[in-house]
Write a structure and sequence with these properties.
alpha/beta, globular, 8 helices
């Protein structure tokens, strides 16, 4: 039976999702998920089926609810997309620092995780997908698997950052670090219809994601460790996020079963 346990860590509401058969004497892979782990919750029974049937490795999901989503998940200050909306404040570094220095240590101390980076992933959709990419630059020694679904690569100057340009904001300089990608895995997804009806910078969603993918290739990911998926009918909706999250689990943690070989 799946277990859902609620925790309050460093002022963040955290939902710990333990797989059926959870055994404190074993250790498990762990995925840290933004937006409270909503995508995993929507497919929890199916994910549990994949685990129990031996199709993927057992894993623990840590769903972290944002305190202020548009600011927790953005890397620097940027104008709002709507006339009367507040600006993006860009506090991703602060948020990820909390995840790494307070939330993860608590989880590792209280649950049967394997704390090693090779067994630790971070995942999100939309702005959550964007902050997962930034986690790969800020904390490449903490996380080795990254799941970025329909990430907000349209965010002002993100593409320039990925291309190695210096970004200056509020007296701060943001420059993409050089990261050894040999042990990293990245699952990237975008729907081909995302942004198609937008009139803001979000209309560049698909094009910017494809350009970001080219930059990730240049960073040195092994060909077998970088998968870019797309869906010709994909819109910016949970329907597609959930489906491709499941596909990311198959790719990252899939096992060969007796009667079938999973695509990885």
């Amino acid at each position: 039976m799946i277990q859902y346990l609620d925790e309050k860590i460093a002022n963040y509401e955290v939902c710990v999702i333990l797989p059926s058969g959870y055994d404190q004497t074993k250790t498990y892979r762990t995925i840290y998920m933004h937006d409270g782990g909503k995508t995993a919750k929507q497919a929890a029974n199916y994910i549990d089926h994949l685990i129990l049937s031996g199709q993927i490795e057992p894993l623990i999901v840590i769903g972290i609810e944002p305190i202020d989503r548009k600011n927790d998940y953005t890397p620097w200050e940027a104008p709002s997309l709507a006339p009367h909306a507040s600006t993006f404040e860009g506090r991703a570094q602060v948020y990820l620092h909390t995840v790494v220095t307070e939330i993860k240590p608590y989880i590792d101390a209280h649950y049967a995780t394997n704390p090693e980076p090779s067994h630790t992933a971070i995942s999100g959709c939309s702005l959550g997908g964007l902050v997962s990419i930034f986690a790969s630059y800020y904390y490449p020694e903490v996380f080795h698997q990254f799941i970025s679904l329909s990430a907000s690569f349209w965010y002002e100057d993100v593409l320039r950052y990925l291309q190695g340009e210096k970004i200056e904001r509020q007296g701060n300089i943001h420059l993409k670090p050089s990261v050894n990608r040999q042990s990293h895995q990245l699952y990237l997804y975008v729907g081909e219809l995302e942004g198609i009806y937008k009139e803001t910078i979000q209309k560049h969603m698909v094009d910017y994601t494809k350009k970001a993918h080219l930059e990730f290739i240049k960073e040195g990911y092994l060909e077998s460790n970088l998968l870019f998926a797309s869906d010709p009918e994909g819109t910016h909706d949970d329907l597609f996020f959930t489906n491709y999250f499941i596909q990311s689990l198959r790719w990252l943690y899939g096992r060969e079963t007796k009667n079938e070989k999973l695509d990885r």
